[in-house]
Amino acid sequence: MWNKLLERQIRRYIKNADISGPEFQDLFAAISQAYSHHEEDRHLIERSLDLSSKELTETNRALQEASRIIEIRNKEMISGLEYARLVQTSLLAKESSIYETFPDSFIFNHPRDIVGGDFFWVREEENLIFLCVADCTGHGVPGAFMSVISFRLLSQAVRDFQLTKPNEILTFLNDEIKKALSGQSSGIETKDALDISLVVLDKQAGEMQFSGLGQRIFLCREGEISEFRGDRSHIGQNLSTDEKPISLQIEKLEKGDVLWFFTDGLIDQFGGPAGKKFGFDRLRKLLQQNWSMSLPEQKRELKAAFADWKGIHSQIDDVLVLGVRF
Fold it and tell me: Which among 20, 86, 185, 241 is most buried, taking Cβ atoms within 10 Å?
């Protein structure tokens, strides 16, 4: 039996032609069968599409609900981090403390996340000024946690134990951080670390004492830059000061000398035409070019250079640069 719709269509086109022969009958029967199969396939496809549409609708609903939950959680997380930033800011040194101690100075502090692990510390005791820049392991919440602990221990070293030598202060800091993070009897070696540059400025003697771990600082005098490198170790990371005491460097200072402290966030930032790191040499050249400017002007130049270099690249780490004129 032919498909009735197909039969009407065939007769409309062939009209008076004789199609009663057996060869035509077989041909049309085959066509009719193929047409019927096509119709069945079409119905199956339509049904499948209808089912797929329902499944997609359910999937979309599930995705929308998941997206809504993620958005709520994300807002909660950001709100928590914003609060953590307020807490961290309240516990660490204020930028105004640097400007009060050094009228010609700047701080370029640009965390990668809402909270960060880079911090500075300044304290004045009689004729001595204690000044440091530190970079805690990682960034974000773990770095912020380490920064608050380290900041408090630095103040404790000077206030409670009357330590005045930078190498003694860093030895104390290392011992206390290892105790706080590992426990004296647990036997667990901590992987948390801290890179730091610490100077003690003696205003009466016109002298700088420097100790550092994993960092360096620049001293500029009349356009000539000297580099002071810290030891190749890290606070808290398997550093044994009994086996290898932290070194101490002493330098006479003159009026107008400029000191620059910096963490590795800027020098490790990828960017520029070839997507390379900013690097020590580029930073040194930039600072040397602008040394005669006021420190606020130097900050503007530094911020512009960083933004231009970074371009479309993501910031990879916290950035902190501090400059003071003695």
Answer: 241
